[in-house]
Amino acid sequence: MPASRKLLAVILGGGAGTRLFPLTQQRSKPAVPLGGKYRLVDVAISNCINSDVLRMFVLTQYNSASLNRHIAQTYRFSHFSDGFVEILAAEQTPESPQWFQGTADA
Fold this sequence. Notes:
CATH superfamily: Spore Coat Polysaccharide Biosynthesis Protein SpsA, Chain A
Distance between the termini: 31 Å
Radius of gyration: 15 Å
């Protein structure tokens, strides 16, 4: 098994994107359309796939519905592959009632 097959990528996909407003008014920064067909998150996922890193988690938090839908509809690996792109959504719990406060906090 190649070394890259043992790697796991964690992609941060939860930014509010205040500097991209109004593009981020109803979606997270990684879900902003790029070139009419793609989303900003596709750049990071494409880099992983082209580097033969096929196991990825995308951490989401802010306005993530369109991002979750895009990833679920776009990235489907073969049943015979060990590759995946899975969403890990932030949650509020009684022990941790606040959201992440930025990239470093994720």
